[in-house]
Amino acid sequence: MKPATTGPVPDRPDALTAQVLDSLRGEDERLRELIAGIVTHLHAFVRETRPTEAEWLRAMDFLVRTGHACTDRRNEFILLADMLGLTSAVDEVNHVGPPTMTPSSVEGPFHSPAPPRPMGAWIAEGPERARGEAAVVHGRVTDCDGRPVPGAVLDIWQADDTGLYDSQDDEQPEGNLRALLTTGDDGSYWFRTVRPSSYPVPTDGPVGELLRALGRHPMRPAHIHLRVEADGHRPLTTHLFAAGDPYLDSDAAFAVKDALVAPFRPCADAGKRARFAMEGPFLEAGFDIRLVAEGETR
Ligand code: BEZ
Ligand code: FE
């Protein structure tokens, strides 16, 4: 497609931008700042790319359809922000801290209330338990200096071995592959599950259309979501990504960070098998979590 016009852009757009910025009023200073930023960048975008009126209307139609695709259980706008890396950008500017902290990562659309479970619980209670590869995930929750954090609550959720969450699959009981675990004195945690697999984000709406038009795949690398809360520490929402996954370098949600990637290794150690009460072969993934103390200024 050709841009609307060629040749030099007249002076008017700059004056127009200034006029719009000058019109911003109201008590809320932060709102004015945010809208001024959007106006400035979008006006610059228009001057730079010169959309035709037909292209502009097509964009408006896309946004309207994105809104119409939203329901109580699906937010197509959040998905759009995820697929454009905007959610990860917002995450990045909001979670700075010491270099030893566990990095945060996007929440995604599949969080729902998890059942409290005892430490070491099997969280795979659906058909995936017989079908998938058994795995033990374990680690310690500490502060950024390695001191254990007792009483930390881990909210864990993951898709099954075919890439489906309980909310997408009638075969899985509600609360499947979800857990709330509370750490003891040494900050340690562990649970038994099946290895997650990579899966596509929903592609049956306008965002799927956009991904196809842009020649992009919809896949997310295999992961487990964790949200960790502990008194005196900043809450952390993050992922554990499975090392070796073919989509680690091209996550559709741009949410992978190196420090969040851990291997699921086959474990043949009889002592560990007994300690984790595993009957057959299993994979082991270690994932320590370092929280930032409230008031931390590093
Ligand atoms: C997820 O991990 O569940 C997810 C994250 C971003 C977009 C879609 C799905
Ligand atoms: Fe997910």
TrEMBL record:
Keywords: Dioxygenase, Iron, Metal-binding, Oxidoreductase
Domain Intradiol ring-cleavage dioxygenases: 137-165
EC number(s) from the headed UniProt entry: 1.13.11.1
GO biological process terms, semicolon-separated: catechol-containing compound metabolic process
Originating species: Planomonospora venezuelensis
Name of this protein: Catechol 1,2-dioxygenase
GO molecular function: catechol 1,2-dioxygenase activity; ferric iron binding
Taxonomic lineage of the native organism: Bacteria, Bacillati, Actinomycetota, Actinomycetes, Streptosporangiales
Keyword Oxidoreductase: yes
Family to which the UniProt record says this protein belongs: Belongs to the intradiol ring-cleavage dioxygenase family.
